Amino acid sequence: MKHLIDPTDLSKQELEEIIDLALDIIDNREKYSEKCKGKKLATLFYEPSTRTRLSFTAAMMELGGNVLGFSDAKNSSVSKGETCADTTKVINCFADIIAMRHFEEGAATVSAMNSRIPVINAGDGSHSHPTQTLTDLLTIKREIGRFDNITIGFCGDLKFGRTVHSLIKALSRYEGVKVVLIAPEQLRLPDYMKQEVCDMHGVPYKEVDTMEEVMGELDVLYMTRVQKERFFDEDEYDRVKDFFVLDAEKLKSARPEMRILHPLPRVNEISVDVDADPRAAYFRQVENGKFVRMALIVKLLEWANDPTKTTELVPKDAVRNKFICRNKRCISNMEVGVDSLFRPAHDHSGDYRCVYCESKPK
Amino acid sequence: MKHLIDPTDLSKQELEEIIDLALDIIDNREKYSEKCKGKKLATLFYEPSTRTRLSFTAAMMELGGNVLGFSDAKNSSVSKGETCADTTKVINCFADIIAMRHFEEGAATVSAMNSRIPVINAGDGSHSHPTQTLTDLLTIKREIGRFDNITIGFCGDLKFGRTVHSLIKALSRYEGVKVVLIAPEQLRLPDYMKQEVCDMHGVPYKEVDTMEEVMGELDVLYMTRVQKERFFDEDEYDRVKDFFVLDAEKLKSARPEMRILHPLPRVNEISVDVDADPRAAYFRQVENGKFVRMALIVKLLEWANDPTKTTELVPKDAVRNKFICRNKRCISNMEVGVDSLFRPAHDHSGDYRCVYCESKPK
Amino acid sequence: MKHLIDPTDLSKQELEEIIDLALDIIDNREKYSEKCKGKKLATLFYEPSTRTRLSFTAAMMELGGNVLGFSDAKNSSVSKGETCADTTKVINCFADIIAMRHFEEGAATVSAMNSRIPVINAGDGSHSHPTQTLTDLLTIKREIGRFDNITIGFCGDLKFGRTVHSLIKALSRYEGVKVVLIAPEQLRLPDYMKQEVCDMHGVPYKEVDTMEEVMGELDVLYMTRVQKERFFDEDEYDRVKDFFVLDAEKLKSARPEMRILHPLPRVNEISVDVDADPRAAYFRQVENGKFVRMALIVKLLEWANDPTKTTELVPKDAVRNKFICRNKRCISNMEVGVDSLFRPAHDHSGDYRCVYCESKPK
Questions:
Q1: pTM over 0.90
Q2: What is the interface pTM, i.e. ipTM, of the complex?
Q3: Of A46, A240, B25, C101, which is most buried by a Cβ count within 10 Å?
Q4: CA–CA distance, B209 with B220 (Å, rounded to integer)
């Protein structure tokens, strides 16, 4: 069974198959309008996320399928203490494919381990949100026309932003990609991203303090929010916050072909005076999110009947119940019956990483 | 683009087109059962209102369309602080038409200003609730057979009842309409309704203290609830409350063709011993609400492709960011990025009225 | 009109018709995929119950019908104080059949009394949950092949477990059924179940303290949860709790054809090491719940047009407004406008039982 828990579950070829299918769907809406007739998508949202939930819902409806589920754990059996594993087995009787959003990291992995139908991770805590990455990639494809030979600036919270990390990983598979990092000192890209991703894949990066100094170089500017709570020092926050707000003035030095992306919701990090600019692609990005989810649903349902398509949920070199994860929000620490699972880190350091959430052992 | 924010957005002719279509739908259910196949209605309910939400949902389903949305802001991105404007732009990617319920007055106006698809106001605070007015009108049409030459009594809270104000405005367009106002002193129809609506359109009205004294004259008795909280003086409430409760006894002097309407939910202002009386039309009114919403959805989707059909969201004589609205629940005071907008009052007094909520400036 | 409020509303023949239809649906999925096209099921869940709600939803979708409703009373008009009777009359305008879950006992009865469309009780407090009983029966039919000549063990909370009582009642209609009761002293099957059901229908039963001592005799082991809150004495709970937990070890003495049922959700009363055993039927039971609800919906919609099919909501020998129910959670004590209704107890003792909840008068 093929699931989508993390963007890396897809090979470069599989990912491009999904992108290509999304492009075909965009051009031939009618052709796909009954593609999933009689199929059901379960949207299991243990925390509210309207945009993601409605994107999946609209996607399945435009394929002629049905949608059932819950939009908040308070309205679900979770309040009666059912495990994620049991809920998955129950939902397997009601649906053909699952999209799960959970506040516990690794929840979608546990669900997939217990599922006879494909599971899509619609966000598990701050761990992974692969359909956002697919959305970003389809937007780059449609707006820029290619994945290789692009210079992409990431602005805002590069330390905690899971969408930033995932998109850098995904683009690191392509030639000629350059990354520009625009962040306050406190929110810089973590070292392991620089070393294990950029350096290992030969992706040049540079760090700058303001977007103005690099605006003219960029093909893509990927904006994220700088949250006050991330700062220990409020004065420091007040000092830097305006540096990471995009407005029409700052946009003047950008090239006409440059495109602005944002995973939304935005608060004030993009001024509304930018919205009418043709370079503002963030609302088009929302629609791309729907199209790429349509393509993903079609592909996963197709792959479910293909025994050669599998997701390796437990790596062959994983060790079971030997370590304890240091991440308190990891599902291995929160749900009974979930074995601890660790695999050797990819950097051959001898360290181990949690299979559910990629944290280190305690 | 044509929206429905306030009943006055529809001309008399457009309104009658919708009523006529509703009547045709009632007679030819099968003919419309796939009318909206492949279309999606977004029900964006920032506060719960089961009856209205399910009425829209049933309407769209009986047209063969799909429904997505949320039933409570707590389960939506609103908790993450997204503006109504941004949410509308996002939902534009997922649906073909929006029905919005909001606790902020003017929210549907802001949504319409940011929308490429039709927006229906499903109630914005105590400002407007136009599909209730359409429901009332279809019920009068079906039960009485005409809009002109009717005597209609309004009983209960005539001061704050938005459905009462809207229905009086709508009926004031017809000949021979007489209005009887049955309300406690504290909850009488506001002066501006008497002057700007009744007097200006030549609608005779009279105010009485009890329904018994006028029961025999009425073609329609429109009941609403008298809420205890509206009274400063609890003794006064206790003294008058029973005057505004309809029961089988009081109904004895009514004519056999008279009809009782109520927007529901009722608490105790209509005794259950009235329910079985053929003059009790309030549950039939619920079904009319579904039919008129079906007609409205069909018409707005049709008009969306007609460039001559527009809603003037910003009046030509409006002034921008000059005044501040005195209404704390007005969206211009609650959401960033919403310009203040005022237009001259229709009574040529030189006063201004808020474009979002019709309040005066501070 | 035929409703399903309590399993006893169905004759043995009607029940078998539903089971047989469920079996036909399982074998001929395609044949039923548009059986309810154009029909709408209203799921009115005054308290959350994800599994039951999604089972009904999936069932209606697999019949080609639509589903609308609410999943929690907080998001419904109930917060505005509308009665169950009025809500039912409103929903009659929007749907073709109702599934109602309510925390008040007798709520579905009141709904049915006010409904022109079939009402299915999806659980009313601790009173009745008939579709769980249908689910259990279909599972026994599919797993064991018959209803007669079976020995069924009930383990856990036999005092408060409504599913246990209902299933014993349903099976008591068949020949050769033997019941084994495995429960702590505090949670034994109530005397009236032993006398009015088992003894009256000639069903032999025995009470034991551990499942081990009877495991080899059983055709079916029906597990339920022993809740700590049911015990006055915590030490006593700690002493006995493990006796009522099923694990792989205890299962060793069971026959290969034995089957384990559980209404779910389970907490820890069935160890996860049992899940992979072919005798563990509880997740297959979930799917049976969907199939039997499909059959029930089809049958009730069919019977709605058959004047010979009725549910006797008010027994002919009932007395109105003479007694008051002693059950605080009975709808007759909680909702205005609901008459008190009592009927003579079936045991000819001269006692009376509440028509809504089967409690005694005060």
A1: yes
A2: 0.95
A3: C101
A4: 17
